[in-house]
Amino acid sequence: MPYTLTWLPDILKKAGLKVAQVDGWEERGVSEMGTVLGILCHHTATQKPGNMPSLNTLINGRTGLKGPLAQLGLGRDGTFYIVAAGKCNHAGVGIWQGISNGNTHFIGIEAENTGLADDFPWPEVQLDAYYRGVAAILKHIGKDASFCAGHKEYALPKGRKPDPDLNMDEFRKKVADILNGVTDPPVLIPAVEPDGGAGRPTIKRGDNNDFVKIIQAKLDMEPDGNFGPKTEAAVRAFQRNHQLVPDGIVGPKCWKVFDSIS
């Protein structure tokens, strides 16, 4: 049975962010969440290259700590991976805004970063997505930027956690600017290919047309024209294999790569 945070992908997509839904995320969690009161920001500290090498750890946990370890993973390319819709083991002992049960009341976001000099400064596209994703969630739950904390600010005793390797006062200022409408909206994927292209539409899950059939044929799938979860998963895999953002959406860039294959 799905847990309650099934609104996460829609909220992030409406904010213009790239989203990849991890299979089974709706029913993943250690238990049901309580009332969502804020967000805890983390970095993964994984010493591996790539966009989101920590994803498997976020899903399954690590030695001594059962997964899932966060509701959301944030790749270096700004893609939000929806990991779980239930409560996750990400907070531990701590307090922020008088709230001490972080796993029950805070959504956890694990951004891919080593936390070391080799991964600083953070990619601009990742930071921008971090600000916008946090703002979108806070707006949905009716909270201001003060209900976003770094794990290092929440964790007790002080100094127990170093993540994320960001100035959280500056982070909250960026989030507040988005909530207050000071920041320009993100550049969205065009609805159709721009001038010079074939004029094909951007297609995504829920669409049902002949353009979906073309994509399914390229992916060696039965071309039924229905862009359902299996087609979305196949598109995400194709995008990962061709160094595209694995958001499951076929826009101008993805169409161009499909054109290059027979």
Structure description:
The chain is of the alpha/beta class and 262 residues long. Helix content is 31%, strand content 11%. It folds into two domains: 5-179, 3-Layer(aba) Sandwich (Lysozyme-like); 190-262, Orthogonal Bundle (Muramoyl-pentapeptide Carboxypeptidase, domain 1), CATH 1.10.101.10. The strands form two sheets. A six-stranded mixed β-sheet has the order 1-6-5-7-2-8. A hairpin with a 2-residue loop joins strand 3 (61-62) and strand 4. The model has no long low-confidence stretch (mean pLDDT 93).
Helix vs. strand class: alpha/beta
Tertiary shape: globular
Helix content: 25-40%
CATH topology of the largest domain: Lysozyme-like
- What is the distance, rounded to the nearest whole angstrom, between the alpha carbons of the first and last residues? 41 Å
Count of alpha/pi helices? 9
The chain-level mean pLDDT equals 93
* Strand residue content: 5-15%
List the domain count as a whole number: 2
Q: Key terms for this structure?
A:
262 residues; alpha/beta; Lysozyme-like; Muramoyl-pentapeptide Carboxypeptidase, domain 1; 2 domains; 6-stranded mixed sheet; two-stranded antiparallel ribbon; 8 strands; 11% strand
